[in-house]
Design a protein that fits this description.
By secondary structure, this protein is an alpha+beta fold. The chain has one domain (3-62). It is 41% helix and 22% strand. The protein is built from 2 helices and 4 strands; from the N terminus they run E-E-E-H-E-H. The chain has helices spanning 22-38, 54-62, and strands spanning 9-13, 15-16, 19-20, 42-46.
Length: 63
Amino acid sequence: MDINEYRGCWVFVEQSHGKPARVSLELLGKGKELAEKLGVELTAIVLGDALGSLPQEHIAYGD
């Protein structure tokens, strides 16, 4: 296993009742900047049940 293969920027998205915390959206924007600077992928981690379109909405903030 080569640890150098495991790179990226992860943002954990806090949500309640299918709505993201505002700070999560801000962090996605900053995460995107950092990922671009480092030349790595940005990954959003959204945990929960019956999230509906929430994960798809977050993609727009990371695009």
